[in-house]
Amino acid sequence: MRIRRILAAVIATAALAGLGLTGAATATAQGAPSVVSPSECRQGGGEPRIDLPGNPCVGGTHNGESVD
């Protein structure tokens, strides 16, 4: 009986640790938005909109990234 409780605790701990690791990986993968040049924005099929707040690249592969 005692072995079953210990085994259940070990499995629960491993499962929670796995969830924590996947959450940390997701947060790291998102990171901060990158900055692209106006020409990179256009090459990716977007349009640099320096008239909008945050100077975003609108559309294309760099959609939403800041234009520097």
Helix segment tally: 2
Strand portion: 5-15%
User: What string gives the helices and strands in order?
Assistant: HEHEEE
Roughly how many Å is the radius of gyration? 22 Å
Which stretches of 5+ consecutive residues score pLDDT under 50? 24-28
Q: Averaged pLDDT, please?
A: 79
- Terminal CA distance: 64 Å
Compute the number of strand runs.
4
Notes on the structure:
The chain has helices at residues 2-30, 38-43; strands at 35-36, 47-48, 57-58, 66-67. With 68 residues, it is mostly helical. 13% of the residues are buried. Mean pLDDT is 79; it is low at 24-28.
Task: Summarize the structure in short.
Helix content is 51%, strand content 12%. It contains two helices and four strands, in the order αβαβββ. A hairpin with an 8-residue loop joins strand 2 and strand 3.
Indicate the topology.
Blueprint lengths: L1 H29 L4 E2 L1 H6 L3 E2 L8 E2 L7 E2 L1
Parallel strand pairs: 1-4
Antiparallel strand pairs: 2-3
Feature tags:
68 residues; two-stranded parallel sheet; 12% strand; mainly alpha; two-stranded antiparallel ribbon; 2 helices
